[in-house]
């Protein structure tokens, strides 16, 4: 059940320890500096390196992967802390790369189990839910297809009765990370959606593998990009690097925060795009439910009928384990994430008790929570275009002064908000940077 399907098939954790970084000095000069070692940065660096160019990736955190990382320490299995669904497999460049690297990919079961205050739906209730979801989805997609830059809330029917809060949560907070009033129907319509895949070894493991051997400098936050002269000068607390071009992949909300200062300031077109594409909120509350109290299938998605926006979307028995995601998002998710781990864990316990029942609450064990919203180097989940903001994605990617490129998920019009989109954007930016850099003199021609 994803952004584009109408009911498909009917309907702050430590992670893998960072490799020790030697205190080598930064190089004084490279061809291209890549800022950020998430999907976009890794893709860009691989392409530049394959073209024989000198490149360095500067990453603020002590590990690479950005919003697509797996915790290999706390769960007895690799657990995705960010991206988990491999969206749009036929358009997603990571699928072939993952398979070639030996990762096992399998289908997301997709058809959700509906739960109404701990019980299965009675006769007619599933149909009521499916009809409400289908009507909402049709209205949103019709508006998007017609190019109407209105919000999901404005396009959706308002007479979905007792299904209204559930459908608003699914289309807003869960699908998109913002509430329905803040999401453009056109941007939503543009999102490429087909049946998703999961990776047995975790999505994060795929990125970790693809980052191997790249010149990534961890724990090195860029503070300034000076593009006032020829090329760029990229400043970090460990020193300044000069380069012909810079590829900037930090999230739109990081860029909006001013944590990376541009001199001169970015052109108005990019600054406006950054402001218009701020990140929504999405967090995983990862709950241990031993003994399978809900009799759930591996990776079975659940929909819980909601009375308010203060709800969550469970994904059962991740990879066949006893670990479940309870996913929260939108304004509610942001407020809860800002309230901190204790409040998030208390919500998880209350949700399990209310929605799954006392037996599940009794066996519930550890809860781990993610903290993307409050992470200073991420500041949210993924970019969301409000009404009127859809064209800003391509504007954000426009080259700046033939030496600065902004890449990352926010710049992909069909795969925005996904790892695949981020990867594709990094490859496009690398191609552009390569076009800027004149061919290297062939060896042996020095006089
Ligand atoms: C909880 C959650 C669930 C998600 N689920 C899915 C999913 O199921 N499927 C899917 O496809 N997508 C999902 N996404 C979205 C997906 O993770 C992102 O779209 C994608 O990973 C973004 O990649 P990126 O390279 O654009 O940015 P990032 O991954 O954010 O990479 C940018 C990097 O820049 C670094 N950085 C920031 N500031 C600086 C600085 N000053 N100096 C140096 N480095 C800096 C950051 O630390 C980061 O590593 C999810 C995201 C979240 C948060």
- Put simply, the count of helices is 14
Do you know the CATH topology of the largest domain?
FAD/NAD(P)-binding domain
Secondary structure: number of strands:
18
CATH class value of the largest domain: Alpha Beta
- Average per-residue pLDDT, rounded, comes to 93
Per CATH, the superfamily of the largest domain is FAD/NAD(P)-binding domain
Quaternary state of the chains = single chain
Please state the CA-atom Rg, rounded to the nearest Å. 22 Å
Helical percentage: 25-40%
Strand content: 15-25%
Biggest beta sheet summary: 8 strands, mixed
Written description of the protein model:
- The strands form 5 sheets. Strands 1, 2, 8, 9, 10, 11, 12 and 18 form an 8-stranded mixed sheet that branches. The protein has a 4-stranded antiparallel sheet with strand order 15-16-13-17. Strands 3-4 form a two-stranded antiparallel sheet.
- Helix content is 32%, strand content 16%.
- β9 (224-226) and β10 (232-236) form a beta hairpin.
- The protein has helices spanning 39-50, 93-100, 125-145, 152-155, 164-176, 185-190, 203-210, 252-257, 268-276, 330-339, 341-356, 358-363, 392-396, 419-436, and strands spanning 29-35, 55-58, 70-71, 79-80, 105-107, 113-115, 197-199, 216-217, 224-226, 232-236, 239-248, 261-263, 282-288, 302-304, 313-315, 323-329, 367-369, 404-406.
- The protein folds into 2 domains: 29-72 and 202-278 and 385-436, FAD/NAD(P)-binding domain (3-Layer(bba) Sandwich); 111-194 and 282-369, Polyamine Oxidase, Chain A, domain 2 (Alpha-Beta Complex).
- By secondary structure, it is α/β, with parallel strands linked by helices.
- α1 runs parallel beside α14 and α5 packs across α10 (330-339).
- The longest helix is centred in the N-terminal third of the chain and has 21 residues, at 125-145.
- Flavin-adenine dinucleotide binds at residues 35-41, 58-61, 66-68, 82-85, 87, 221-222, 249-251, 254, 259-260, 282-284, 370, 372, 377-378, 381-382, 408-409, 417-420, 422.
């Amino acid at each position: 059940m994803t952004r584009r399907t109408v009911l498909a098939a009917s309907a702050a954790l430590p992670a893998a320890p960072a490799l020790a970084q030697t205190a080598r000095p930064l190089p004084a000069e490279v061809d291209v500096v890549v800022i950020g070692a998430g999907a976009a940065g890794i893709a860009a660096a691989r392409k530049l390196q394959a073209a024989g160019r000198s490149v360095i990736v500067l990453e603020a955190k002590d590990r690479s992967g950005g919003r697509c990382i797996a915790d290999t320490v706390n769960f007895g299995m690799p657990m995705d802390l960010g991206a988990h669904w491999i969206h749009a497999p036929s358009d997603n460049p990571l699928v072939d790369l993952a398979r070639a690297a030996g990762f096992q990919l399998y289908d997301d079961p997709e058809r959700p189990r509906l739960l109404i205050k701990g019980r299965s739906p009675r006769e007619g209730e599933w149909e009521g839910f499916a009809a409400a979801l289908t009507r909402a989805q049709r209205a949103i997609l019709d508006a998007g297809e017609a190019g109407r830059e209105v919000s999901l809330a404005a396009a959706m029917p308002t007479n979905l009765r007792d299904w209204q809060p559930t459908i608003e949560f699914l289309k807003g907070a869960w699908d998109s990370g913002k509430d329905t009033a803040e999401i453009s129907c056109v941007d939503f319509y543009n999102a490429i959606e087909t049946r998703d895949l999961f990776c047995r070894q975790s999505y994060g493991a795929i990125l970790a593998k693809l980052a191997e051997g790249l010149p990534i400098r961890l724990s090195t936050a860029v503070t300034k990009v000076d593009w006032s002269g020829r090329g760029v000068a990229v400043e970090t607390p460990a020193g300044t690097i000069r380069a012909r071009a810079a590829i900037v992949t930090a999230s739109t909300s990081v860029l909006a925060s001013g944590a990376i200062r541009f001199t001169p300031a970015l052109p108005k077109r990019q600054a406006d795009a950054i402001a218009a594409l701020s990140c929504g909120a999405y967090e995983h509350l990862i709950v241990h439910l031993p003994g399978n109290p809900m009799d759930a299938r591996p990776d079975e998605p659940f929909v819980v009928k909601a009375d308010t926006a203060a709800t969550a979307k469970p994904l059962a028995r991740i990879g066949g384990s006893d670990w479940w995601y309870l996913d929260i998002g939108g304004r509610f998710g942001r407020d809860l994430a800002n309230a901190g781990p204790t409040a998030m864990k208390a919500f998880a316990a209350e949700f399990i008790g209310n929605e799954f029942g006392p037996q599940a609450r009794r066996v519930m064990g550890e809860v781990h929570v993610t903290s993307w919203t409050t992470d200073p180097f991420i500041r949210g989940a993924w970019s969301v275009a409000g009404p009127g903001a859809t064209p800003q994605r391509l504007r954000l990617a426009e080259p700046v002064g033939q030496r600065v490129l902004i890449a990352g998920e926010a710049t992909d019009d069909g795969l925005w908000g996904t790892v695949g989109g981020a990867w594709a954007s990094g490859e496009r930016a690398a191609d552009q940077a390569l076009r800027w850099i004149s061919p290297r003199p062939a060896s042996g021609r020095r006089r």
